[in-house]
């Protein structure tokens, strides 16, 4: 590690680094850091509501369309099964720019006012792009580091959780406090990142690293430092009026912290380089796979679990004929075997309740702050707090659940049960608010919302294998837009508008006499969030069923086959 590079080695090392797993992982962090534009809906939804004269039910319909696009990732998964990763990322970049650019044109009056169904399509397309980023970056990284999938998922989804706060700082520095320009930023910036790294991210041979978990904890430290700075700068901006130069300085620090994992990636690739140049000093004999420069222990070939071994002449049956021939948990299920599994349907129901309620809470946070009389700058801080604690929830659930599995054989679904119970507390704080309680509610809702996603994705990979993971993890989150539609549009939006109409009636006014239908007071969201509390409690009880069904599986060594494949190189 201490050996430096000679001038003649600089170019070959750079080529190896740019083609290596560690740089691909860093690129994945950046892509995921731009893939969370949907979490900023609470910030820019008010400008959509004001410029296009929408009521809350219509705005919640837009929110549902966003959630639908963000969670229906089956198409990206199926495309990834038959096309290379670079194509998946390019499609995602095109969808991201096209969808949000059309919304920006609408709110700035550069095109005629779109019909509601057109706006729903625009935001659905823009939000759907994040599934292509997920499939391209997240699935590839899990396959490249299969033994650290919990930590990996926590980190990658954590950066997505921070995305809202990161892009808020960039837009304040570049555009000032202009919500319309925020829509433009989330249209071009994530698309540009995907295009830049389009050839960097690809599946490589999984190779055991002697200190892999230590490296991931260093990545975790870098991401926590970013999250803490974002939280401090967000709260400071609410107390102090920042100049243009101050916003630019804050954004510069944020960008530096976002890029800090690059130094860790360079160090790890330099370690690989030195081990190749000085094999006597290295802990294991190595050779170089010329097509993918990585450490490869000599004389044998890596094969992914589930792939046929040499000499096997196994004739595969049609996927329809193997639906009932389900393998053991942890083996590679076909798509139909997984989708017809009772485990998947139990997880689907828990996701429907948990994520559906969480999406509803996050989407309405801006209006909740408004109804409780908080000023606009404070409402923006609530949205940023959700984004930051969303990150902490993701990395916490990823790393802690991984530790509990490896050391204590605790089923990962049990962690999901605890997270859903925590979410209930946040919803009750909205239903029965006290002075300043919305700050605490924002933290709890953000944390519990973030914690659910890595758990769901990891559980799917552990129960149903990695062979069709691109499609299965996208299928697993289909329940959340359905829950969002029922709880957000049909429940919360309807009850909010009903309370607003009651307030108008008390003032002797009708709907036609006001431009925007607005409800002010703690009663506006009380009943919806009481209902969401009971729904989430039911989801927690449902996830307990999965705990009971999988407890014996999690008591076994679930990573044994990955370790054996890596050790038999």
Automatic annotation (TrEMBL):
It is a multi-pass membrane protein. Pfam families: NFD4_C (PF23262), Nodulin-like (PF06813). Signal peptide: none annotated. Keywords: Membrane, Transmembrane, Transmembrane helix. The keyword Membrane applies. Residues 21-266 form the Nodulin-like domain. The keyword Transmembrane helix applies. Its main location: membrane. The chain crosses the membrane at residues 21-42, 86-107, 158-176, 182-201, 213-233, 245-266, 344-362, 413-432, 438-461, 527-548. It is found in: Membrane. Residues 338-554 form the NFD4 C-terminal domain. One of its GO terms (cellular component) is membrane. This is Protein NUCLEAR FUSION DEFECTIVE 4-like. It comes from Gossypium australe.
């Amino acid at each position: 590690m201490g050996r430096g590079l000679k001038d003649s080695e600089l170019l070959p090392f750079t080529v190896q680094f740019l083609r290596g797993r560690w740089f691909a992982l860093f690129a994945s962090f950046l892509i995921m850091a731009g893939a969370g534009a949907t979490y900023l809906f609470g910030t820019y939804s008010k400008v959509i509501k004001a410029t296009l004269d929408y009521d809350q039910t219509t705005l919640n319909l837009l929110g549902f369309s966003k959630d639908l696009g963000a969670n229906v990732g089956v198409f990206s998964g199926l495309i990834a099964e038959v096309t290379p990763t670079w194509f998946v990322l390019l499609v995602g970049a095109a969808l991201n720019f096209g969808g949000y650019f059309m919304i920006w044109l609408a709110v700035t009056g550069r095109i005629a006012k779109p019909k509601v169904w057109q706006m729903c399509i625009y935001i659905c397309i823009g939000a759907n792009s994040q599934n292509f980023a997920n499939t391209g970056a997240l699935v590839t990284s899990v396959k490249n580091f299969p033994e650290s999938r919990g930590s990996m998922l926590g980190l990658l989804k954590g950066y997505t959780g921070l995305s809202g706060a990161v892009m808020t700082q960039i837009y304040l520095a570049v555009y000032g406090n202009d919500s319309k320009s925020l829509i433009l930023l989330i249209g071009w910036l994530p698309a540009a990142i995907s295009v830049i790294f389009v050839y960097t991210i690809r599946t490589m041979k999984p190779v055991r690293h002697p200190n892999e978990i230590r490296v991931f904890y260093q990545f975790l430290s870098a991401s926590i430092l970013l999250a803490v700075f974002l939280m401090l700068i967000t709260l400071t901006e609410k107390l102090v009026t920042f100049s243009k130069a101050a916003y630019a300085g804050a954004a510069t620090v944020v960008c530096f912290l976002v890029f800090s994992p690059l130094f860790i990636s360079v160090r790890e690739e330099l370690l690989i380089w030195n081990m190749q140049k000085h094999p006597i000093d290295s802990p294991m004999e190595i050779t170089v796979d010329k097509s993918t420069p990585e450490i490869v222990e000599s004389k044998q070939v890596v094969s992914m679990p589930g792939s046929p071994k040499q000499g096997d002449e196994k004739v595969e049956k049609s996927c329809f004929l193997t639906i009932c021939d389900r393998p053991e948990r942890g083996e590679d299920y076909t798509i139909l075997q997984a989708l017809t599994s009772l485990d998947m349907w139990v997880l689907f129901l828990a996701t429907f309740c948990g994520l559906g309620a969480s999406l509803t809470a996050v989407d309405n946070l801006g209006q909740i702050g408004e109804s409780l009389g908080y000023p606009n700058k404070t409402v923006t801080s609530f949205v940023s707090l959700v984004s930051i604690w969303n990150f902490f929830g993701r990395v916490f659930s990823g790393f802690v659940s991984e530790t509990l599995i490896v050391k204590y054989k605790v089923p990962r679904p049990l962690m999901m049960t605890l997270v859903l119970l925590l979410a209930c507390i946040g919803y009750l704080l909205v239903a029965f608010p006290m002075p300043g309680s919305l700050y605490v509610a924002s933290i709890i809702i953000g944390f519990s919302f973030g914690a659910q996603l890595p758990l769901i994705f990891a559980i799917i990979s552990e129960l149903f294998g990695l062979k069709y993971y691109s499609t299965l993890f996208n299928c697993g989150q289909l329940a959340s837009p359905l829950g969002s539609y029922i709880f957000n549009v049909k429940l919360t939006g309807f009850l909010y508008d009903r309370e607003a109409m009651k307030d108008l009636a008390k003032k002797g006014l009708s709907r036609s006499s006001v431009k925007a239908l607005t409800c002010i007071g703690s009663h506006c969201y009380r009943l919806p969030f009481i209902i969401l509390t009971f729904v989430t409690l039911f989801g927690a009880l449902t996830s307990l069923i999965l705990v009971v069904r999988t407890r014996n599986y999690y008591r076994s060594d679930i990573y044994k086959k990955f370790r054996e494949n890596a050790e038999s190189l």
